[in-house]
Amino acid sequence: MSTTTSLLLSPPTPFRRPTTTTIATILPPPKPTPQKKLRHSTPKMSTNKTTTTTPTQLLTSITKLLFPKSLPPQLLISTVRTTWSATWHLMMSQLAPSDPSGSYTRPVSQFRINPNHHQQQLPSTLHLYVGLPCPWAHRTLIVRALKGLNDAVAVSVASPGLDGSWVFDDDSIRIGDKVVPTRDKVAGAKTLREVYKSRSGGYDGRCTVPMMWDVEKKEVVCNESYEIIEFLNSGLNGLAKNPGLDLAPPELRERIEEWNRIVYPNINNGVYRCGFAQTQEAYNTAVNELFSALDTVDDHLKGSRYLCGDKLTLADVCLFTTLIRFDLVYNVMFKCTKKKVVEYPSLHGYMRDIYQIPHVAETCNLEAIMDGYYKFLFPLNPGNIRPIMPSGSDHDFLSQKHHRESLSASQQSAQVLAS
């Protein structure tokens, strides 16, 4: 053992009281400080490995440098609150444009179909682009499936990207017949923006789903969801395997429009007006209108199997795609917390009724829906933590008997003949 080490490990010299009376003789003697033993360790040899610093570690180091322990917590909290609030409003202004009151204002779709000029298309000319989290795109998947147009109108399924865009990955492994993300099946594009920009004249606007694409002309046919489902319902009957199904029969069109005027602004768009509200007043208005409309619909469905009676219509399709996401996402993330759909007996039974129509459940990728909101909608969920799926929203629960056929005079499942 070295001399230095043996000195450090030797016992301390006992304390001796001074003989002279001083203040020290009055106070109790100090306790000797025990010496710490040195640990023998083998020197570590350099391995020449490069240490990688993660963004989180770098941010932590900078935070410790800028905000030492002596900084009052109130100042730290105030600084972070002010910075985050300013950043949040900046992001929301791009994600969700609002009017002067702070209410969300949905941008108008740029590419529209003239409903009076539905022309027959060859199977190879039309291609549908969708994203699984999007309720507006979900409408088109349901109508496409119910009409038996899966072979006539091919589909590419995009996924949310970290930057807020829609991206394409390699085809996901399919479980049964459930719709999953895919590559771009037309031109192998990496993003939906690439598809939009490839049209004649290019494009620099919002690249949204759903989008109907003309493969031969390399042109956007339409990116307005309701016009696409109207077209799929009545414009391609020559190619449909279920041409006899009409989700907007002439005798019900007026009632369909009446329900659309209630459902779209207050429920379909209403959940977004709650989640994207940028002032308390805007949120209060949106949430009150949302639940007032849900109460109205639930009360109506106590005596009617579907919105317009015994027949499933486009109005039901539009309502369903919001209801199926309500307890999964909107109740928590969009602050639509007054009630859950499962707490509405008629609404929840109605939702299960539609879910159990052949081929509808296959369009409902519940996991992808939750991931698309909680893991990618950063301004509303910065931690990207996805909560557990509510028990009333999983496949097993949605497959339970609904007993709503007793409300239908025809005793048929909304005349849905899809096979």
What labels would you give this structure?
419 residues, mainly alpha, Glutathione S-transferase Yfyf (Class Pi), Chain A, domain 2, five-stranded mixed sheet, 39% helix, globular, disordered N terminus
Task: Give a structural overview.
With 419 residues, this protein is mostly helical. The protein has a domain at 115-407: Glutathione S-transferase Yfyf (Class Pi), Chain A, domain 2, CATH 1.20.1050.10. The protein contains 14 helices and five strands. The chain has helices at residues 3-9, 23-26, 55-66, 73-95, 135-146, 192-197, 225-234, 253-268, 270-275, 280-301, 314-333, 345-355, 366-374, 395-398, and strands spanning 126-131, 154-160, 166-167, 211-214, 219-222. It has a five-stranded mixed sheet. Helix 5 packs antiparallel against helix 11, helix 8 (253-268) packs antiparallel against helix 10 and helix 11 crosses helix 13. The radius of gyration is 31 Å and the shape is globular. Residues 1-27 have low confidence and may be disordered.
Provide a concise account of the structure shown:
The protein is about 40% helix and about 5% strand. The protein is mostly helical.
CATH names the topology of the domain at 115-407 as: Glutathione S-transferase Yfyf (Class Pi), Chain A, domain 2
> Quick one: how many beta strands?
5
Residue runs with pLDDT of under 50 for 5 or more positions: 1-27
- Biggest beta-sheet profile: 5 strands, mixed
CATH architecture of the domain at 115-407: Up-down Bundle
What topology does this entry show?
Layout: H1 3-9, H2 23-26, H3 55-66, H4 73-95, E1 126-131, H5 135-146, E2 154-160, E3 166-167, H6 192-197, E4 211-214, E5 219-222, H7 225-234, H8 253-268, H9 270-275, H10 280-301, H11 314-333, H12 345-355, H13 366-374, H14 395-398
Parallel strand pairs: 1-2
Antiparallel strand pairs: 1-4, 2-3, 4-5
Helix pairs in contact: 5-7, 5-11, 8-10, 8-11, 10-12, 11-12, 11-13
